[in-house]
Amino acid sequence: MPAPAAVDPRLLRAFVTVAEELHFTRAAARLYIAQQALSRDVRRLERELGCELFVRSTRRVTLTADGERLLPYARAVLQAHDDLLAAAGRSRPLLVDLNSPGLETHREVLRRARERAPGHELMARYESGLTWAAGELLAGRIDVSFGRFAGLAPALRTGLEQQPVRYEPMAVVLPEDHALAALPEVPLSALAGETVYAGAGNPRTLEWTDLARLLFDGRGITPAPPAPLAVGEEEFQRIMARTRNPILAVVSFPPLPGTVSRPLVEPVPLSPVSLVWRKGMIHPALTELCRSAAEVAVERGWLRRPEGSWLPETDATVMGAHPMSRC
């Protein structure tokens, strides 16, 4: 059988990873794919090369003589492929929008990606909201952002890709002397009659304001009216001190002087976070960012929904329709 004119590097990477692990389950975990998909890739490569690469039994996996002979060549091809991608991407950094300084979910994923890809430059940006960032992504002014993908207009979503990262529990930020500040957790029912700020009037964060609207509906919670956008921590504190409105946030929202943050319960409302980038974008550091997001999500259990939690059905559908790693 003649050798193929070209071999997909993905198939070679599957072969090399299984050869290093000699275990399909561990190799699949390393590659963040299903074991069945990995087995299909190895079988496809064997068909294309016209030789058997592994001897498989119920107890062990071993390389055949052909597998031993081809392994160093496969490694050399993958190294050349990675070098080519690195050279292509070295001309500019990957611009990663973290929305706002201090959001720990986004920062942790970026830190892990920087550790995994020290040869690439990943630069942080702060666009304050996925609605605004989506336009910047489509225009090519940033490369990646985080946020609630289901909250974007359909016309924006068609030009973007997403990878689920976390169901982040939501919280409420309160003045230190607020009556609810004494509670370790705040039941949603305790917010009935309160006016809660959730970004109304901020055109950059429409997806967040919409999520709050869905959460407040039928619970007697009034969204705070639109207010001028407070830029900077000092201005944010000043506005909060004047209005004294509780603020809807996430549990990783950075602390502010004079306030306390309390998780919301009964039920636990969730803010769905995805990694988002424009369709067709190619950059070697994007792969590492996606893998890092998947890796951290597994380690932290970020994609396990707490029992009895609250999440809009549209968000559950969007998050569940995508595998954990899309890159």
Automatic annotation (TrEMBL):
Signal peptide: none
Alphabetized UniProt keyword annotations: DNA-binding, Transcription, Transcription regulation
Pfam families membership: HTH_1 (PF00126), LysR_substrate (PF03466)
Domain HTH lysR-type: 7-64
UniProt record similarity statement: Belongs to the LysR transcriptional regulatory family.
PANTHER family xref list: HCA OPERON TRANSCRIPTIONAL ACTIVATOR HCAR, TRANSCRIPTIONAL DUAL REGULATOR HCAR-RELATED
UniProt protein name: LysR family transcriptional regulator
Organism in which the protein naturally occurs: Streptomyces tendae
